[in-house]
Amino acid sequence: SNQQELKDKAFHKLTANFKKFNNLLLLETINLNSENQRSLSSELPGLLIFAKKSVMRVFFLDQLISHPQLQTLIEYLENPKLKEVCLLMTNSPRKTIDEVLLSLKRQEFAHPGSIATANVTLSAGDQVFSSMSTTNDGYLRSLGLSIAVMEGKLYLEENFIAAQKGKPVTVVQSKVMKIIGLKAGIFETRVLL
Q1: Left if phi > 0, otherwise alpha if psi is -120 to 50, otherwise beta: which for 186?
Q2: Distances from the Cα of 124 to the Cαs of 145, 160, 173, 182, 187, in angstroms?
Q3: For the chain, which terminal residue's Cβ has fewer other Cβ atoms within 10 angstroms, N or C?
Q4: Are strands 153-156 and 160-163 parallel, antiparallel or unpaired?
Q5: Within its chain, how far is the Cα of 117 from the centroid?
Q6: For the residues of 51-102, what is the DSSP string, one character each?
Q7: Which residue(s) pair with 162 in the sheet?
Q8: Whole-prediction pTM value?
Q9: Cβ 66 vs Cβ 59: under 8 Å
Q10: How far apart are CA 11 and CA 30, in angstroms?
Q11: From the CB of residue 107, how many other CB atoms can be counted at a distance below 10 Å?
Q12: How many Å apart are CA 88 and CA 161, to the nearest integer?
């Protein structure tokens, strides 16, 4: 299956490169998308591996006897709260990695669960969705918005809180902000270990 091929490919990549690099860094990404993933891969010195935590965990469990220092990494990979993680194999010093990661930080669409960077309230009226076709009314209603079609325009019948600064963004809030093109999140990557 395609899923198994991806697992095998990641495992092979880990095996082939494990001893080529001095440093293993576990990175956590927030609001990762394919463009940001490409930026990370091209800008970071070394080899960046995006694989399921379970695949990385199995690989490092196999290495544990000869490399007991991997125990902490394995414990991080077992943490269910960590969602978007990747592994950087590099010979570069940590300071260099931190500088590159800081340079890649930018405004991004907020993924569900990420922390909003601003308060965003969509005001009732026909301005919020003025550029959208009225055929989107059903979808917007399915998200829980009070929408009416008036004079050929989408009309938001009541204010909608799309984000609250410092609070996690819900699935619905994330979808609504993406529809209107509002980036209320930050793409960032931090070194966990």
Answers
A1: beta
A2: 11, 8, 16, 17, 29
A3: N
A4: unpaired
A5: 15
A6: --HHHHHHHHHHHTTT-GGGHHHHHHHT-TT--SEEEEEESS-HHHHHHHHH
A7: none
A8: 0.76
A9: no
A10: 24
A11: 14
A12: 38
Give the amino acid at 69. Answer: Q
Could you read off the pLDDT of 145-179 as tens digits, one per residue? Answer: 999 998 889 999 999 999 999 999 999 999 999 99
Name beta bridge partners: 25: 88
pLDDT in tens, 84-103: 888 898 999 999 999 999 99
Q: Which amino acid is at 22?
A: N
As beta bridge partners, residue 114 has: none
How long is the chain? 193
How many other CB atoms are there within 10 angstroms of residue 131's CB atom? 9
Cα separation of 74 and 61, whole Å?
7
Locate 68 and state its tokens: 């007991």
Q: Which helix (H) or strand (E) holds 24?
A: strand 23-30
